[in-house]
Amino acid sequence: MAPIFLLLVVAPLVAEFLLGDVTLASLGALVLFIPLYGAGAVLIREVVRRRGGGWPAIAVLAVAFGIVEEGLATQSLFNPHYAHQHLLSSGYIPAVGIAVPWTIYVLSLHVIWSICTPIALVECMFPDCRAKPWLGTPGLIVAAVVYVLGVVATAVTTWLVFKYVAPPSRLIGAAIVAVVLIIVGVLLTRVRRTAPPSLQAAGRAPAAWVVGIAAAVAASLLVLAPRIPTTVWSTLIFLLVEATAVIAINLYSRRPGWGDSQILALAAGALFAYVWHAFTTMPAFDSAPIVVVRISNAFFAALAFAAVWVAARRIRLVSVGGRNGDHSR
């Protein structure tokens, strides 16, 4: 149960606290964040790993997670006054009620940082059982129930603050898209499990430190992109960086030498981007004094560094012991 409890906490800490949107002064918000982010990450991870699936399925289900949170729970995809940030002021499409730049940005945050990075980090802390399920059927049911309660609690809390409800047509549309993505994600686990082994690409995988630097640069570009005043360029950078990352990871992960160290390097690079970003912004949902804000930033940065160090050490111990398994997923 250790990796389960760790993922329950790591997911919300990365998604909200490491990002800098919430500080230590609001640590009690974990009561809401753990059911939403923690149970969501556990549920996605367990569904995929129980079915023998890999990262493509996790990523697709992470998009569904983002749509459920931002389209149904907080409704930030549709609320022009959400967090008083004017999130829909540019790139707005009236027919569907969303702004393209904000939609791409917030869904990317959820896929990369809310779901994939916490899962990768915690799995690397337990390399012996990285691709194995951690919960039985009763535990999976409990995780699903807790997640649903988290979504409902988030929806109620958001309504109490902003008093906004999107038109039914938009809520239904978001729900349909989420369901379709969930079906696709589940089908991807079957394809991954039943497809014949693909041929390995020529050459060896890059060293972990190279992967980490590349991931840090790519992730930093993503958190910097929204600061570009031109919406078109900001959106294009997002799409270009993410497309390049998907292609590169898909290519190099097929090469000999790709393993837990490279997966951890990807997570570490993503964490690095959130760390420096937090020090250059103010919390979106917290009015704590600046001293508390920067102490919080330093505290969660230290936690992230410690988590990466522990994971790297455990991977090294397993590697030395000759117990590394198949890293194709």
Which tags fit this structure?
329 residues, mainly alpha, two-stranded antiparallel sheet, 10 helices, 69% helix, disordered C terminus
Summarize the structure.
With 329 residues, this protein is mainly alpha-helical. It has helices spanning 2-18, 30-50, 55-73, 100-125, 137-162, 168-194, 208-224, 231-252, 260-279, 290-320; strands at residues 92-93, 98-99.
What would your notes on this structure say?
The chain is mostly helical and 329 residues long. The chain has one domain (2-320). Helix content is 69%, strand content 1%. The chain has 10 helices and 2 strands. The chain has helices at 2-18, 30-50, 55-73, 100-125, 137-162, 168-194, 208-224, 231-252, 260-279, 290-320; strands at residues 92-93, 98-99. Strands 1-2 form a two-stranded antiparallel sheet. It is globular, with a radius of gyration of 19 Å. The protein starts with a helix and ends in a 9-residue tail after the last helix. The model is unreliable at 323-329 (pLDDT under 50).
Distance N terminus to C terminus?
22 Å
**SSE pattern:** HHHEEHHHHHHH
Distinct helical segment count? 10
Helix content: 55-70%
Largest pleated sheet: 2 strands, antiparallel
In what range is the share of β-strand residues?
Answer: under 5%
What is the total number of structural domains? Answer: 1
Whole-angstrom Rg: 19 Å
Topology:
Layout lengths: L1 H17 L11 H21 L4 H19 L18 E2 L4 E2 H26 L11 H26 L5 H27 L13 H17 L6 H22 L7 H20 L10 H31 L9
Helix pairs in contact: 1-2, 1-4, 1-10, 2-3, 2-4, 2-5, 3-4, 3-5, 3-6, 4-8, 4-9, 4-10, 7-8, 7-9, 9-10
